[in-house]
Amino acid sequence: MFQGGIGVLGLVAILVLGIPVLLHGPGLWPSILYGVFGAAATYAVLLVLTRVPGLFPENLERQMQGLYEFAAGYSPAVLILLSLLAGIGEELLFRGALQGWLMAHTDAVTAVMVASVLFGLVHYVSFTYFLVATGLGVILGTAYVLSESLAMVMIWHAVYDMIALYCLLRFPRWFGVRG
To answer: CA-to-CA distance for 130 and 124, rounded, in angstroms?
Structure first.
């Protein structure tokens, strides 16, 4: 419900404020392809970075244990739906509405950075998780600017979440989680 509500809020802001949305950029099929590839590559890089000793200021194991316990209580269909709603809803709000509005009133770098920090704050469960979410926001925000495709970043975000949940549930030990 929350994820769907975020999307509705973003869509209403876009419509009421007349925020220009860059929807398909290179086209729907390239947006799907780039979104899936971007999600897989982003997740792979993040997974490698979590293995670098001392890179993150705190251990993510506690947050991953909590996320594992949350996700383990749902069916795969519900987790896929949640990932889709998060990808669509959060991108409508953060990239479409917020970043779009900021791009109309400031420069692209400021728009990406402000939207990314706010994205990170909404995902705050620890400082490290905030940094990871903000970094993902910068990647998605930059991809939106370069591709001119909100559809692509929605797909990227949704597929990223699906990969993250699958790996967490299938390989919990990768994250220091007791399954």
So the answer is: 5
In the chain, the number of structural domains is: 1
Q: Which domain holds residue 106?
A: 24-175
Tens of pLDDT, residues 97-144: 999 999 999 999 999 999 999 999 999 988 888 999 999 999 999 999
CA angle centred on 156, ends 154 and 158, rounded to 5°: 65
The per-residue pLDDT for 52 is 85
Residue 63 has pLDDT above 90, yes or no: no
Quote the tokens at residue 84: 């889709």
Domain presence at residue 39:
yes
DSSP 8-state code for residue 175: G
8 falls within a domain: no
pTM (2 decimals)?
0.94
What's the angle, vertex CA 97, arms to CA 31 and CA 117, rounded to 5?
90
Residue (of 98, 121, 27, 79) closest to 35 by Cα position: 27
Are 36 and 159 in contact, with CB atoms under 8 Å apart?
yes
In a domain, 13, yes or no: no
